[in-house]
Design goal:
CATH class: Mainly Alpha
Strand content: 5-15%
Number of strands: 2
Strand order of the largest sheet: 1-2
CATH superfamily: lambda repressor-like DNA-binding domains
Distance between the termini: 15 Å
Largest sheet: 2 strands, antiparallel
Helix content: 40-55%
Shape: globular
Order of helices and strands: EHHHHE
Structural class: mainly alpha
Radius of gyration: 11 Å
Oligomer: single chain
Number of helices: 4
Length: 74
């Protein structure tokens, strides 16, 4: 899955009062991974499962923050 917009994710984090560490704990990933999503647009991708856990932790509907990657799956 591809992050739609890092600022959108950051805005939802702020709205929910979640730090990068808190979001990482709730989503079951590392704080460094959350930082990477927010700060490095070239690496703003993750698995469907991680994207779903992040969106759930932020209490948003599926597909709000992430979209399917355009890369072909083999």
């Amino acid at each position: 899955m591809k992050l739609r917009d890092a600022q959108l994710m950051a805005d939802y984090m702020a709205l929910r009062g979640l730090s990068q560490s808190a979001l990482a704990r709730r989503a079951g990933c590392s704080r460094q991974f959350v930082w990477q999503l927010l700060k490095d647009p070239t690496k703003g991708t993750c698995t469907d499962e991680v994207a779903a856990r992040i969106e759930e932790a932020l209490s948003v509907l599926p597909g709000t923050i992430f979209r399917p990657s355009t890369r072909a799956r083999l």
